[in-house]
Design brief:
This protein has helices spanning 22-33, 70-86, 108-121, 172-185, 235-239, 315-328, 389-404, 427-437, 443-450, 461-475, 479-495; strands at 12-18, 38-42, 57-58, 91-99, 139-141, 161-169, 189-192, 194-202, 205-213, 218-229, 252-261, 269-275, 284-291, 294-303, 339-352, 357-360, 365-368, 378-382. It is an alpha+beta fold. Strands 3, 4, 5, 6, 11, 12, 13, 14, 15 and 16 form a ten-stranded mixed beta sheet that branches.
C-alpha cells in the first residue's frame, strides 16, 4: 500500500470518503470490499485523532438496559460481534466488574435479572467467532472470590460484584491501519495527509473536492459521484465556501479524556466504580481498565472552547481527574507521578437541561443532502461511539448503493491480517513495513500508530532512536529531516499537554 496522492486526480470515483478516523475508515472498508470504486482522504494520518484515544472498549450496550433501549442494544451486540469477527487478533474478551450493593439497580437480584436479560438478548453474541474470542456469560461473584481483585479499593467489593464481558482493543492503531490496507487490497484508493479544502461545484452541483497534498503542497482535484463527509470538527471549514443553506453550523464539542496510570491496579477485570464528575449532575461509572501493564482511567468530559486547537487536557483538568481517581482508590496514594500519559479526543455534543450544558450526543447521525439543490450526492456522517462505526458504515453503504443504483448486501467481515508484533521484528523491519506498505510518512505515524511505542508514555530518545534511524533509511531522509522528525514527535506530545519529562519510570 503506497501513498500516491497524484493518482486521486486521474479518475472519477464512485464514492469519495472525507475523513480518516475510525468512522471514515469503516465506511471506506465496507464500500471498497463491496465493489465500489472508493477513495479515502485524511488531512492527518489515519486514525490520528479521537479514534486513537478511546477507552478501547467494544461494548454490547449493557448500559442501554437502563433506558430499555433494546433496539440500540441489539445494534451494539451485532456491532461488537462484527468487530470481533473482523479483528480477532486485536480485539479480545475483557471482563468488566462493578460492585453490588444492597440498594437500587446494584442489588444482586436486580443485577441477576439484568444479566439474565442481557444474556438472552445477546444469545448469538459468539456466532461466527473463533473460540478464543467467545464472550462468557455474565455472572455474580462473592466478596470472598473478589479479595485482592482491585488494589485501589478493597472495600468496594465487600458485598460482592457483578461481572460481564465485552471486547477490548489491544492495538487501536493496527486495527485502523489493517482496515485501510484491507480496503486498499479490495481496490480502494486511500491517502493520508490530503486535506479537503473546498467542494468542487460545477453547473451548480457538487462533483468532488479541491484538496491539498500537505506533504508537497500541491493542489488536487478529486471527483466522485457521491461524497461522504466523516470529517468531525473540520466540517464547518470545508463547507465555509458553500451557499448559506449548505454551510455547517459549528455545533458543540466535548473533550473526552482518559488518564494512563503507571500501575496495573487490576489484572483480570476492568473495574467500574460509580461517582459524580465535577462538571456533571448525575453519578456514572468510571473504569480502571488494565492495559499493557498500565491502567486506563476514564472517561471524563470537558468543554472544548476551540474546536481547531489540539484537545489537550489542562493542568487543572488533570488534577481534577487524578483527585477523582484517588477518591475512588482510598487504599492507594496516587499522585501526579503515577500518571504516564493523558489521552484526549473530541466528541460531538448537544445542549441539555435548563442550564443548556453540553452533554455527549447519544446516537450517530447520517444525513443526506437530498432536497438541497446541488448537494443530492452528499452524505454527512457523525459518529459517537467507536463500537457503532461498523453498523453506521453498513447503513451508509445502503444509502450509497441506492443513490448509485447499485446492489449492496451486508456480509460478515473477513478477518483482518495479523501483522507480526513489533516486539518480534527489528526496527529496520518495522520501518520498512511502515514506510513501504502502510503509508507512514512521519516518525509520529510509526511511533504512535504503526506501533504502540509512544502510546502509554513519552518515549525517551534511546527508545525511539533505533526506529528513527531505520525510518530515515527506509524513507531516504537527510540529517535535517531526521532532526525535524524527532522534534515533530516531541511537539506532538507538547501539543497534547505532555512533555518529554513525563516518561515512564525505568
Amino acid at each position: 500500500m503506497r501513498r500516491q496522492p497524484e493518482t486521486l486526480a486521474d479518475q472519477t470515483f464512485d464514492v469519495l470518503v472525507i475523513g480518516g478516523g475510525i468512522q471514515g475508515i469503516s465506511i471506506f472498508h465496507e464500500l471498497a470490499r463491496s465493489g465500489f470504486n472508493t477513495a479515502l482522504i485524511e488531512a492527518d494520518d489515519f486514525a490520528a485523532g479521537t479514534s486513537a484515544y478511546s477507552l478501547k472498549v467494544i461494548h454490547g450496550g449493557l448500559r442501554y438496559l437502563q433506558s430499555a433501549d433494546l433496539p440500540r442494544m441489539r445494534r451494539s451486540i451485532r456491532a461488537r460481534r462484527g468487530f470481533m469477527q473482523l479483528a480477532p487478533d486485536y480485539i479480545k474478551p475483557q471482563g468488566f466488574l462493578i460492585p453490588t450493593s444492597g440498594l437500587g439497580p446494584q442489588h444482586p437480584w436486580a443485577m441477576r435479572i439484568a444479566f439474565w436479560v442481557n444474556d438472552l438478548i445477546s444469545a448469538d453474541r459468539n456466532s461466527g467467532l473463533p473460540q478464543s474470542s467467545w464472550l462468557p456469560r455474565s455472572k455474580l461473584m462473592t466478596a470472598e472470590a473478589l479479595k485482592g481483585v482491585f488494589q485501589g479499593n478493597e472495600a468496594a467489593f465487600a458485598t460482592g460484584g457483578a461481572a460481564w464481558y465485552d471486547g477490548f482493543i489491544h492495538d487501536v492503531g493496527r486495527v485502523a491501519i489493517e482496515m485501510v490496507k484491507s480496503g486498499y487490497a479490495s481496490g480502494g484508493s486511500p491517502c493520508n495527509y490530503v486535506r479537503a479544502d473546498r467542494y468542487l461545484i460545477e453547473d451548480g452541483t457538487i462533483t468532488g473536492v479541491v484538496a491539498t497534498d500537505t506533504e508537497s503542497q500541491s493542489e488536487l482535484t478529486i471527483r466522485a459521484s457521491l461524497i461522504i463527509e466523516a470529517t468531525g470538527t473540520a466540517r464547518p471549514n470545508l463547507r465555509a465556501s458553500m451557499t448559506a443553506d449548505l454551510r455547517a453550523a459549528d455545533q458543540g464539542w466535548l473533550k473526552a479524556v482518559n488518564l494512563v496510570l503507571k500501575r496495573e491496579l487490576s489484572v483480570d477485570y476492568a473495574i467500574g466504580l460509580k461517582a459524580k464528575q465535577p462538571t456533571e449532575e448525575e453519578s456514572r461509572y468510571f473504569f480502571f481498565a488494565p492495559y499493557r501493564g498500565h491502567t486506563l482511567f476514564g472517561t471524563f468530559y470537558f468543554s472544548l472552547p476551540d474546536r481547531e486547537a489540539p484537545p489537550a487536557a489542562t493542568a487543572e483538568e488533570i488534577r481534577l481527574m487524578l483527585a477523582h481517581a484517588q477518591s475512588l482508590c482510598p487504599d492507594l496514594e496516587l499522585s501526579a507521578d503515577d500518571v504516564s500519559m493523558v489521552h484526549t479526543g473530541v466528541i460531538p455534543a448537544t445542549s441539555s437541561g435548563p442550564n443548556r450544558r453540553l452533554v455527549m450526543k447519544t446516537s450517530p447521525s447520517i444525513r443526506s443532502g437530498a432536497g438541497s439543490v446541488g448537494a443530492e450526492n452528499l452524505i454527512e456522517v457523525q459518529s459517537v461511539k467507536y463500537t457503532e462505526s461498523l453498523d453506521v458504515a453498513s447503513r451508509v453503504a445502503q444509502q450509497a448503493a441506492k443513490y448509485l443504483n447499485r446492489e449492496y448486501q451486508s456480509r460478515n467481515p473477513e478477518p483482518l491480517a495479523a501483522s507480526e508484533l513489533t516486539s518480534a521484528l527489528t526496527p529496520e523491519a518495522v520501518a520498512e513495513r511502515a514506510v513501504h506498505d502502510e503509508m507512514a510518512v512521519h516518525l509520529t505515524d510509526l511511533i504512535l500508530r504503526r506501533t504502540s511505542l509512544g502510546e502509554l508514555y513519552v518515549p525517551q530518545e534511546r527508545e525511539f532512536r533505533p526506529y528513527l534511524d531505520a525510518m530515515a533509511a527506509a524513507a531516504s531522509w537527510d540529517e535535517a529531516q531526521i532532526e525535524w522528525e524527532s522534534e515533530r514527535l516531541m511537539r506532538h506530545y507538547q501539543a497534547m499537554g505532555w512533555s518529554a519529562s513525563a516518561t515512564r519510570n525505568r
